């Protein structure tokens, strides 16, 4: 028993996180790797069958994990983003859903040869686009903010609505099977309205309570996040007791309410829930895919394949086209959203439970609902996972894929540095709170951003021009550290830099904590005053090929002193990365053909300029 448990934990946790790392390292869709891993563990090697090992607690555990995922997604749904995205979000979550239900049902009946009862259940299940699939894909693709908002809102809002819709269709079919159709109006509709109102109320009330207690200092910081997570799981369980699917709505509303009530301490929760979300999604996908039986795969037939292709190339595009007629969406956005619609965990979980109940009730072809949904999940994850980035790039809905640099603090020397990087064709943005400081950069055609990066508005503004590296170059060393500490979880701690706060402050024990600052730009002696003084003496930034090794060995590097020939700042490898020099580098960068160094050099002597 202990050996089986150890093998299961190793397969699910180790394999899932390993797949996530491979996806990050080689820029692959993580969901596809997790799906393939589950197929290998389960139907392939017959090594892992979670439902058999865990028993009747498996599906409740899956439902609880899905509740956490939609709660996490709800925390990212700020109504200010909804207003920025426009009416397209409302159309995708309200108008497109019933259209996709009808078209999906027709495709299941006339193409997949399912009977009407099973067809309606299939159509209700496939209206959802899972946040467990969409959100990881969005993290790895630099989509334009409005398009990303379309997909994010649709996935998170449609997930609980789709689960409730599938439950409603299943109950209606069960009533028809018992020949008590009058019960639908007499009992089911009031029950649905009650469960919906309860889900919304149970989501809003605890968020207001948390805000009330937080403002009066009645929640200790050490208990804030445990209390919020406990409330999220509790509202899910309470509402699900009254109606299957209502719990997902309550968890989503709770997350949205916390985000829009601006409860203090949410920044720490967002960081923790993102890490937990990666872990939960990895485990869920591996377990649910591994739990598929070979008998389910054996039921895949030509009509089911044709039905899957019809949903992909007819149902979804037509539904999006009809629901966005005379909207503000461009044809590129409509085409892209009509193609990208991966299904995920909720569709798989609902199909497994509802299909079995419908089959037990005696509905013909109900046993084909699960294979049909599985075929759609597998196809959409693979096709949409690999095609999202190239399709978005072809439709010009992505921001630049080249590594981008943000420089905070618009001084004379930092503006010159931004100008050199900009002329190299590398995306760069110069950030400052004072409009006058950005005037010179604006005149030179350098992209600028006037905002306070430590504000919510500043973070949202920077997301619209996503950067991969950051240099905090203001005269205030403490402010530079705050900016780097705030953005380190998003950029990565190895990608945020600041001008040196001073040699004494870099002591790892007595100086500024490494967690409270960025990596040092250049050498410890290169503080803001040094750069400013050198610039006043005529030193300027310049792009040049890497310095050749003196004798075929390691590449020549700057001595790091201000009285040398140059100060080595960074190396640009177009389309790949930016290496910013730091005394805290583990290893120096090995130059390659095509690399360009950006250095700070003194003015050329008169004999080199031809002047007297």
Automatic annotation (TrEMBL):
Superkingdom in the source lineage: Bacteria
Record keywords, A-Z: Antiport, Cell membrane, Ion transport, Membrane, Transmembrane, Transmembrane helix, Transport
Ranges annotated as spanning the membrane: 6-24, 31-51, 57-77, 89-111, 117-138, 150-176, 188-210, 222-243, 249-269, 276-294, 300-323, 335-356, 368-386
Gene Ontology biological-process annotations: proton transmembrane transport
One function term, GO molecular function aspect: antiporter activity
Main location, first listed in the record: membrane
Lipid bilayer topology: Multi-pass membrane protein
A GO CC term attached to the entry: plasma membrane
Limits of the Cation/H+ exchanger transmembrane domain: 22-393
Alphabetical list of Pfam families matching this protein: Na_H_Exchanger (PF00999)
Compartments reported by the entry: Cell membrane
SUPFAM superfamilies xref list: NAD(P)-binding Rossmann-fold domains
Name under which the protein is recorded: Sodium:proton antiporter
């Amino acid at each position: 028993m202990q050996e089986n448990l150890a093998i299961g934990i190793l397969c699910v946790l180790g394999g899932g996180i390993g797949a996530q790392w491979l996806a990050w390292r080689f820029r692959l869709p993580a969901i596809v790797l997790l799906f393939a891993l589950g197929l290998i563990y389960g139907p392939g090697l017959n090594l892992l069958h979670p439902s058999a090992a865990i028993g009747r607690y498996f599906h409740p555990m899956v439902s609880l994990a899905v509740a956490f995922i939609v709660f996490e997604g709800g925390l990212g749904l700020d109504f200010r983003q909804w207003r920025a995205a426009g009416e397209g979000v409302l159309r995708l979550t309200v108008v497109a859903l019933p259209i996709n239900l009808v078209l999906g049902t027709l495709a299941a009946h006339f193409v997949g040869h399912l009977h009407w009862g099973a067809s309606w259940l299939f159509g209700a299940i496939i209206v959802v686009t899972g946040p467990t699939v969409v959100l990881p894909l969005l993290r790895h693709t630099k989509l334009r903010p409005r398009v990303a908002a379309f997909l994010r809102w649709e996935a998170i809002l449609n997930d609980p609505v789709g689960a409730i819709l599938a439950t409603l269709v299943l109950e209606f079919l069960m009533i028809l099977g018992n020949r008590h159709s009058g019960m639908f109006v007499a009992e089911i509709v009031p029950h649905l309205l009650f469960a919906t109102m309860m889900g919304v109320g149970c989501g809003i009330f605890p968020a207001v309570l948390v805000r009330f207690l937080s403002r009066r200092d009645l929640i200790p910081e050490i208990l804030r996040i445990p209390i919020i997570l406990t409330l999220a799981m509790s509202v899910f369980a309470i509402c699900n007791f009254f109606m299957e699917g209502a719990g997902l709505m309550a968890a989503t509303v709770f997350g949205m309410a916390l985000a829009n009530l601006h409860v203090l301490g949410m920044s720490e929760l967002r960081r923790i829930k993102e890490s937990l979300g990666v872990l939960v999604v990895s485990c869920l996908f591996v377990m649910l895919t591994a739990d598929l039986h070979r008998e389910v795969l054996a039921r895949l037939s030509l009509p089911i394949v044709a039905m899957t292709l019809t949903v992909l190339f007819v149902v979804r595009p037509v539904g999006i086209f009809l629901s966005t007629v005379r909207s503000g969406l461009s044809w590129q956005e409509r085409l892209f959203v009509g193609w990208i619609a991966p299904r995920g965990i909720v569709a798989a979980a609902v199909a497994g439970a509802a299909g079995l109940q419908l089959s037990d009730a005696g509905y013909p072809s109900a046993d084909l609902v699960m294979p049909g949904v599985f075929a759609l999940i597998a196809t959409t994850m693979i096709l949409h996972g690999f095609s999202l980035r190239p399709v978005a790039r072809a439709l010009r809905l992505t921001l630049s894929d080249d590594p981008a640099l943000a420089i905070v603090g618009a001084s004379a020397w930092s503006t010159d540095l931004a100008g050199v990087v900009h002329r190299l064709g590398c995306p760069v943005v110069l950030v400052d709170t004072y409009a006058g400081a950005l005037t010179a950069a604006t005149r030179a055609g350098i992209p600028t951003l006037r905002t306070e990066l430590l504000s919510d508005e500043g973070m949202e503004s920077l997301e619209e021009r996503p950067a991969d590296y950051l240099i905090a170059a203001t005269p205030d060393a403490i402010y530079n550290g705050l900016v780097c500490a705030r953005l380190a979880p998003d950029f990565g701690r190895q990608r945020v830099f600041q001008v040196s706060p001073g040699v004494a402050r870099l002591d790892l024990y007595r100086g500024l904590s490494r967690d409270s600052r960025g990596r040092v730009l250049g050498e410890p002696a290169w503080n803001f005053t040094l750069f400013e003084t050198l610039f006043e003496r005529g030193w300027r930034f310049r792009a040049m090929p890497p310095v050749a090794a003196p004798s075929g060995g390691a590449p020549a590097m700057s001595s790091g002193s201000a009285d040398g020939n140059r100060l080595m700042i960074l190396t640009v490898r177009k389309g790949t990365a930016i290496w910013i020099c730091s005394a805290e580098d583990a290893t120096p960068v090995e130059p390659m053909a095509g690399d360009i160094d950006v250095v700070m050099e003194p003015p050329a002597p008169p004999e080199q300029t031809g002047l007297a």
